[in-house]
Structure formats: C-alpha cells, structure tokens
Design a protein that fits this description.
This protein has 469 residues and is mainly alpha-helical. The chain is built from 19 helices and no strands. Helix 3 runs antiparallel to helix 4 and helix 14 packs across helix 15. The longest helix is centred in the middle third of the chain and has 43 residues. It is globular and about 95 Å long. It starts with 22 loop residues before the first helix and ends with a helix.
C-alpha cells in the first residue's frame, strides 16, 4: 500500500510507519471533503450561496489542501461582496499549487480592475462605519452609510441584511421586503434574509429585539410618520429613522470582527495589486527624462537653467520611485504576514515558518512587528516539534539525507524543547554514516557537555569513546 500523505510504500496494516497517519481515515476524510465540494457545487448552481459556502468550509476542515473547494469558496465570497475573504483563500490556494490554478486568473482579473477594488474596499469601510453608528444609537447615519455601501458594491449581501434589520426595527416592512427580495434573488436560501422574511410575514419583530410596550401614539408622532412616508426614494418609501433602544440585537460580534479584519486585508491587497503599475509609470518617466538630459550637448535650444530643472525633476522622480518600491516591498511583506497567519490558523506550521523566514520587517509599524513576533512565538515551537518528529521517523527509515535536513531545521526553530539533545544525537549518527567523524564528535560532545541529564548521555559517551580509539 502507498501512503496517500507521504507516498511511502508499506505492506501491512493501515498505519503508515513513516508519517504515522491512519491511511484508512485519511482516505475517508479526503472522500468526504470531495463529496461536500460536489454538494456545494450543486448548491451554488441553484443559487444557494450560503449553503454552498457552509459546505465548502466543512470540506476544507476535512482536507485543507482541496484546491477546488478553496477556489470555489473564494468565488462565492466574491459574489456576495466579501472580497477580502475571497483573496485570502485564493492566496492560500496559489501558495499550494501555482501551475494551472484558476485562482491566479481570478487575482489577475482583480488586479486589472483596480478601480473596482477601491469601490469594494469603500463599501466595507462604510459597512463598518454603519456598525459603529448603530452602536452609538445613530440609526439615520448608519442607513446613509449602508446605502452608500450597496451603491459601491451591489452584491454586498451583509449590507442589505443590515438595512433590512433597520427597516424592521422601524416597522417599515414594505421597505424591508424590498431588501429581502434583493438578497434572496442573489442567495435564495440566505438564513438571515429568510429569518427577516418570516418576521415580516408573522407581522411582528419576535426573535429580533424586545420592544417596550407603548400606549397610543401622540398626534405629534403620527404627524411625523405621515410626513416621513411622503418622502420620495428610489425604492419603496422609508420613514425617518430614530433610535428607540441602544442595542444591536441580531448583530453578532463575530460579524463585526470579521469585517473589521476584512477591510485591513482588502486595503493590503489593493496596495499590492496597484503598486507595480505605479512603479512602471515612474520608471518610464525617469527613462524619458534621462534620455532628454543625455541628449543635451549644446546643440539644443535648452538653456542651462532648463537642463538643471530637468535634472532636479529627474532626481525627485528617482527618490519617489525608490520610496514607492520600498512601500511595495513593505506591502508584499505584510501580505506574507497575512499568509503566515492563515497557515498558522490551518495548523500548517512547517509552511508557516518558511513563510516567516521570507519576511523582512523593515518599515513595519510597531503593531505589525508585534503581530510578527507573536506569530513566531506561537509557531516556532510547534514547527520545531513537527520537524523533529518527521526527522526521527526519516532517521529510523534510513533516509539519512532527509532526516538531516529535518533535524537541522528543528534545531533552527527550537529554543528549550526537551528533544534537542536527541536531535543532536541523531545528527551525530548521521554524520558517522556520512564518515564526517569530526562533526559526529562535535555533536556527541555537545550532548555530553550541555545536556548532562539527557537520556542519550550514556550512548553519546560510548559512541565518542569508540570514535576516539
């Protein structure tokens, strides 16, 4: 049998002697991930985007390397206005498979439409601002921001749902139904839209917010409602919004946190996508100016003052280009940091530390450096443990070259783990196999002198004694 995880061939049982996984369970989870992907694909074809997204998230829980599921989830997020989440999954997808990966084309398309990306980013920013207004009781300001958000991104389903909630809170069911119809046309089984539709059809706000019972309204309130309902609008009329209770009710904290993080990811993605084009324009302008300056040899009609001004402009453009390239490098490193965060979330520690090694923190803010150090502190010990386990397994399988690389990497990321002495002992054995006796002696001596409580102490002393004879 060939292990589907590492490719090792073995003849007995289901447990791979190399990587230690249960091949039966591994294959079952892969098949389950594929089945969930197929169900999600069918749901997406029927315009059940919420159900498809839920199944794809489950599919990735069973197999995070399912590229098709990750790409489709990105497309669904893009279709529902969550551009930052879509980019996150496409970036992870391309980091796993670069050749013949549709995600590359998706990101290229967004790169060529920089103005659309700015509008999507503005929509997320206005949605987050609306949430803040709602927290502070400014319903009318929140509605203005939400209307601008859906104007910037007509596919922004979360903004439509929040507008629906605001309308229901003010008993403007006709307007709420208008927004519900928009959502259900794009996502026919959206759970929030269906819930709001049920509230409207039941004739009340049960399950949303608990309202204070009131007596008959005053004439002043009645007149205000009458005037408000006469206002014209692009859709069914909406009354003037006044805050009745300082509550968020149906809003969930995770939605707020998700979109606050989303605006940061979208801003980084926009900068990374647009910066190369800006630099190319600067490079072309510099080359043109340099050519003009070089061609000046006295036979032109340019005065020395004009040449000096041109040289000054050239130097200014060079400095600006240098600054832009520095900013481009910084944004690329910030994108790598976001990728490392995603890899850490997926428990892909070995890939995560490799990504961290590529990051240059020059130009990072104190907050970004703190985030970088936090990821390192979390991931390094786990990556070291994973690499040591892998190296030991390779050593026991007589794959000494692979074991050497894994064990050396484990020591690179280890700090005070209890396997360090064993790693040095195995490296000493590998050095003996390679007939590098001096290196083997150095490793044995390190175990003896620095780890006197090691379980390999006696073995190291005996091995060093044999090599010295």
């Amino acid at each position: 049998m060939r292990c589907p995880n590492c490719g090792f061939d073995f003849s007995e049982g289901y447990l791979c002697p190399k990587c230690g996984i249960d091949t039966f369970v591994f294959l079952k989870t892969q098949k389950l991930s594929i089945r969930l992907y197929n169900e999600a694909l069918e749901a997406a074809r029927e315009m059940d985007l919420s159900g498809a997204a839920e199944k794809l998230e489950q599919s990735l829980l069973f197999d995070k390397s399912n590229m098709q599921a990750r790409n489709l989830l990105g497309l669904i997020y893009c279709e529902t206005g969550r551009i930052a989440d879509a980019l996150k999954h496409w970036i992870i997808s391309t980091s796993m498979v670069k050749d013949n990966n549709p995600a590359v084309g998706y990101m290229d398309f967004l790169q060529k439409n920089g103005r659309e990306m700015e509008k999507y980013n503005d929509a997320v920013r206005m949605y987050n601002q609306a949430l803040l207004y709602l927290n502070h009781g400014s319903d009318d300001m929140a509605i203005i921001q939400l209307k601008k958000a859906v104007d910037s991104n007509p596919d922004f389903i979360d903004a439509y749902n929040l507008l629906t909630l605001c309308c229901i809170e003010e008993n403007n069911y006709k307007r709420a139904q208008h927004f519900i119809d928009i959502v259900l046309k794009k996502d026919k089984k959206n759970p929030k839209a269906l819930k709001y539709d049920n509230v409207i059809n039941s004739g009340g706000t049960s399950g949303l917010r608990k309202k204070t019972p009131r007596s008959a309204e005053s004439k002043e309130d009645s007149s205000q409602k009458t005037v408000s309902l006469k206002k014209t609008d692009s859709a069914p009329p909406m009354p003037r919004y006044k805050r009745k209770e300082k509550q968020i009710g149906i809003l969930e904290k995770r939605d707020i946190i998700s979109f606050l993080l989303g605006i940061v990811c979208a801003a980084i993605a926009i900068l990374v996508l647009m910066m190369p084009a800006m630099n190319e324009a600067k490079d072309k302008l510099i080359v043109d100016l340099q050519t003009k300056v070089d061609n000046y040899a006295g036979e032109t009609k340019m005065t020395p003052g004009e040449v000096l001004a041109m040289r000054t402009e050239l130097e200014t453009l060079r400095n600006e280009n240098k600054r832009l390239r520095s900013e481009e490098t910084k944004q690329a490193n910030l994108e790598l940091l976001q990728t490392a965060l995603s890899q850490m979330t997926d428990n892909d520690f070995e890939t995560c530390v490799a990504t961290l090694d590529r990051i240059d923190t020059i130009g990072f803010s104190d907050e970004d450096i703190a985030k970088y150090n936090s990821v390192k502190a979390t991931v390094y010990p786990k990556a070291a443990d994973s690499l040591y386990t892998k190296g030991k397994s390779e050593f026991l399988s007589n794959k000494y070259a692979e074991a050497k690389a894994s064990l050396e990497s484990a020591l690179k990321y280890a700090s005070d783990e209890n396997f360090i002495d064993d790693a040095y002992f195995y490296l000493a054995k590998i050095a003996e196999k390679d007939e590098d006796l001096e290196q083997a002696k150095a490793y044995y001596q390190k175990v003896i002198s620095e780890y006197p409580d090691s379980n390999q102490l006696t073995n190291a002393e005996n091995a060093l004694k044999n090599l010295s004879e």
